[in-house]
Amino acid sequence: CSSVTMTPARRYHGLLVAPLPGTATRHVFLSGLIEEVVVDGSSLSLWTMHQEGDGPAPWPPHLRSFSLVPWPRAVLTHAGYEIEREIMMVRGRPAVLVRYTVKAGNGDATDGVTLRLRPLTAYREADKLTIHNDVLRRDVDDLDAGIRVQPYGSLPPMAITTEPRAPFHVDPGWIHGVEYDTDLARGYESYEDLFSPGAFEVQLGVGESITLAATIEGEIDAPASHWKKQAKRRRAALPKQADLQGRSALAADDFLYEGPGGRTGVLAGFPWFGEWGRDTFIALPGLTLARGDLKGCGRVLSGARAYLKDGLLPNIFGGTIETSHYGSVDASLWFARAVLLYERAGGSATRIKREYLPALIEIATCYRDGAAEGIQALGIHGDEGGLLVAGRPTLNPTWMDANAG
Known about the structure:
The chain is an alpha+beta fold and 405 residues long. The protein contains eight helices and 18 strands. The strands form four sheets. Strands 4-5-6-7-14-11-10-9 form an eight-stranded antiparallel beta sheet, with helices on one face. Strands 1, 2, 3, 8, 12 and 13 form a six-stranded antiparallel beta sheet that branches. A hairpin with an 8-residue loop joins strand 10 and strand 11. Helix 5 packs antiparallel against helix 6 and helix 5 packs across helix 7. It is elongated, with a radius of gyration of 24 Å. The protein starts with 15 loop residues before the first strand and ends in a 16-residue tail after the last strand. 33% of the residues are buried. The model has no long low-confidence stretch (mean pLDDT 91).
């Protein structure tokens, strides 16, 4: 989650942003990489973060071009060399891949390009900030293909590996006063200190690449092989048409994610939204049925059905029913609409009969009678004319849920 220039403008931005295993609490683990390119002794820092007092970051002069499809790709230049930086997420795993390729070169250079990559760790909740402290663990564990770090014992370790293997030079230190200008403009706290354990260093000739992988789930010992696998999957998902409809179809897939336990869900948006029931069921037909993805729609509906409680579906999904928030009168109604559209699109009649019909009956019965505990808490009941009534003087269970005074 970042910007075109890789300049983090919000605290939510980072290269590896993922929920803790088994939870919906998103954390920023790897904030970014300080990139430095050296050609015949001429050094250029590609680092686009800016620090307190620098003012807004200018457009990086070394950034020649950028494209988003089929994955983020930037062309960077220095001393007659073109270096391509590509970024890809690993499907179904909290991991990110970053590949650097020297695309064109300066014939006068003797040793090609030296690339130094210094990882920056935040290791905190996505809506928090961290500061220089003495509690952080500076230890670096060697792996066959890279390193493992765990700045804080309460959070999972992160493995950073490369292919080909690049030597890692231990050089721990803090970068102070990194400024997030969008947060600053909005009046939020906007300065952070980021820790780096050291730097990878590799020499590359024209046509050569290095792939870096970062994950909080084990380690990726062959990042380049993972890159090929993910690139093949991503290209296969590319629509044949290159128009707006085709690009929209590809973008729709980015909102589907694998939640705790392997359940498919819909993210309401980035950078701060998680999985919200109302948003999920409003958007689901357009994200799936509109592009012929009946199976995807069914997976989301079935996964959500397991969270049905007192005729209610969560307005905020957690890892379990107990950690989910049930405060929406309309999430279950949007679910019913999504089931109807799934049926009209040719969805599985067996699944509708066995899974969804009992759920719809429970929703209708609980809403009509107003007797279930969760329903009573939201003040839901049917009036004499058959219309739904919901809410209390201090509770509004619709999307217009702001409280004042």
